[in-house]
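User: I'll paste a sequence; please echo it back and then give the predicted structure.

Assistant: Echoing your sequence first, then the prediction.
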Amino acid sequence: MISTNCSNKSQLTAVRGLLSPGHDILETVTESPGRVLYVIVCAAGPAVEAGRLVAMAQDEGWIVQIVATPSALDFIDVPALERQTGRPVRSRYRKPSEPKPPRADAIIVAPATYNTINKFAQGIADTYALGVLAEAPGLGIPVVVLPFVNSALASRTAFRRSVAELRADGVRVLFGPGQYEPHPPSAAADRFDAYPWKRALTELTRPGD
């Protein structure tokens, strides 16, 4: 079970207070005052509501770092998420002059696309988000993947093999009855409101199998 520090909300407020008006929200201090949750956001419809997961995680004491795939930047409200988390949204590797972000204590990938799930399983690290994911199982960082895929993609052998391989690596992929069930093609918008953000967060505190 992953424990959290419930004093993080006040500490996060203090961090935000260090940011001057108009600042690009770049961390000036790399040490984290609490446990850090990376939320890796992919380019799928529910990404527009990523702030819902941020709020839920903060209520449970997590310090949240948003990591977006390059394509996801067109789906999310970057300034709003930076204000909400007090941290820059990261989508690329840092420059040598930039501070290191705090290491993740846990990772949620949501919404996780067909492309990202398959690349993660294959060990491909051609973006910052995938580079973070490639290392996580080997570092012992808990990872929860909450897919958002349609039934046509979910039926592919490649996808089902990827889910099985990730689970074999200890990654918790919330796919199947009672978890995330794929939507029919062309019906994605009907599932946005019911996307189970909370289910992914709950999975982090569930005892391991």
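The longest helix spans residues 128-139. The beta strands are 36-41, 63-68, 106-112, 143-147, 172-173.
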